[in-house]
Amino acid sequence: MTGKEIIVRKDLLFQQLGSYLALLSVVFTLPFALSLALEYADFGTVLLVVVSCFVVPPFFAYFWAFFYVRTVQYTLYKNRLEVEQGILFKVHKNIPLNKITHILVMEGPFERALGLKSIKIYTAGSTGSRPAAVLRGLDQESKEGLVSALGRF
């Protein structure tokens, strides 16, 4: 049984995930870097600490996003949705379409700027507010096709 692969805009997903992670890493390392810079008032040390705060964490964030995006794959079959993703821990989910209770389409600020959508899929077995799967990096056309396919059930 062959399925229809759902197109993921991996280039834009890379920008989105990299931006999120880079921003978070800078926000969390900046206080530490500034406290070190204030403790050692030498200009060279201050410059080194601040530059390393704005260069090293975003580099690792984009490095991780580059490899993570290559692992993301969504495939829609006649009676199920397959989700594959992960670098260290590979996650492979099979979600029966008849078990889907509802879907939620979301856009955050980075997604809106890049024209991307995320879809959260909830099933009868989803616990609380935790979705069974989150499909990220979908453009408008992919989102509409998937929502209409999932809306049949």
Identify the notable features of this structure and list them briefly.
48% helix; 153 residues; elongated; alpha+beta; four-stranded antiparallel beta sheet; single chain; 2 domains
What's the short story on this structure?
With 153 residues, the protein is of the alpha+beta class.
| Strand runs, count | 7
The largest beta-sheet arranges its strands as 1-2-3-4
Average residue-wise pLDDT: 82
Q: What class, by secondary structure content?
A: alpha+beta
> How much helix is in the residues?
40-55%
How would you sum up the global shape? elongated
Termini Cα gap? 20 Å
Q: Count up the helices.
A: 4
What do these coordinates show?
With 153 residues, the chain is α+β, with helices and mostly antiparallel strands. It folds into two domains: 4-8 and 74-150, no CATH class; 10-69, no CATH class. 48% of the residues lie in helices and 25% in strands. The protein contains four helices and seven strands, in the order βααββββαββα. It has helices at 10-39, 43-69, 109-114, 140-150, and strands at 4-6, 73-76, 80-85, 91-96, 100-106, 117-123, 133-138. The strands form two sheets. A four-stranded antiparallel beta sheet has the order 1-2-3-4, with no helix packed on it. It has a three-stranded antiparallel beta sheet with strand order 5-6-7. A hairpin with a 3-residue loop joins strand 2 (73-76) and strand 3. 17% of the residues are buried.
Write the SSE topology.
Elements: E1 4-6, H1 10-39, H2 43-69, E2 73-76, E3 80-85, E4 91-96, E5 100-106, H3 109-114, E6 117-123, E7 133-138, H4 140-150
Antiparallel strand pairs: 1-2, 2-3, 3-4, 5-6, 6-7
